[in-house]
Protein: Stage 0 sporulation protein A homolog
Organism: Gemmiger formicilis
Amino acid sequence: MAKILIVDDEPRIRDLIREHLQYAGFTCEEAGDGTAALSVLSQGGIDLVILDIMMPFMDGMTCLREMRTRKIMTPVIMLTARSEEYDKLTGLESGADDYVVKPFSPRELVARVKAVLARTMPKPAEATGSYTFGDLSIDTASHSVKVAGQEASLTPKEFDLLVFLVSNKGIALSREKILQKVWNYDYYGEDRTVDTHVKMLRGHLGACRKMIVTVWGIGYKFDPDAV
């Protein structure tokens, strides 16, 4: 079973999360701040991080940025007591895979953990293949993307989003459908999650960004002829 790192400066919050995760069959490690979390992550073996934003010494946002700078691509679910859209978008733009606002339902958090792991954990029987559209090349076996021969550095979620769009070439996909298939959970009005990741994905694709077309009133589609 997957190992989850719980990072929060409040022991009672860590205890609550650990109890529910262990009940669901996960193993857990804990850290009280971002510095301690980076130390645990440097040893490897962590499959997902639940990361609080507001912590002393090193806050969660700084920890997340440092993780990505060090090329630690372990999936991250952010915990925040703030409900402002800015904090959510900042976390997603920094490389978080999902976020949960405090106070939260432990059952919902466990469901989010399972959804992120279902998308990011290796699948032994996963189909592999490759796609080439002009200057854009995608290899699902190696999880690599190249634009005009240059490697594009995508997060796991950005890669999954691109592959989902490409595998449905020419089809207008609603935000609801994208959330269901890429994030593995239902639509609850969080359409900005999709919009933010599309924006970040386009930023990695150079001139090929135009292949991801906004379909007004619906969502997005992949059109290689749009360049």
